[in-house]
Amino acid sequence: MGEGDGRDWREQRQRAVRAHAAADERRRAAERAEAADLVAGFVAEAIRRGLRPTPLVAGSYSGGGRYRTGLTGWYVDRAATRAVDVEGRFYLLTVPGGLRARLFGATPRPHPAPLIVGEGGRDGDSVPLRELLSRRLDAGDDWP
Fold first, then answer.
1. For residue range 79-89, what is the model confidence (pLDDT) as tens digits?
2. pLDDT > 60? residue 143
3. CB–CB of 58/93 below 8 Å?
């Protein structure tokens, strides 16, 4: 095997790695778009059904406190750790917490909604986003 053969192999391998990464990014982008559509549909349906949005609060990472957020929307899980605001943004409602958050409130950042909520978590409790949002709609205003 000559020096040129090794270089050709490395170049082919690098092209394959780049192609794989590009395909993976296209798949993730398609999943993000699908999840965003589900969340937007949820907001439209919640408004159509007359579900009242509520002020959302966030919990600390340590579980030691609850903090105002300035957000209004709907919790989508019973633990009130995931929510959708009235603008159709998905939130994980956990924040660092602390004195500043207690005094002035917390500012959670929106996250891209996952198609499978809880996927990869330690407890193995994952649920498709479509099902989670459907459960929330079916519960109406009888939700924590």
1. 899 999 999 99
2. yes
3. yes
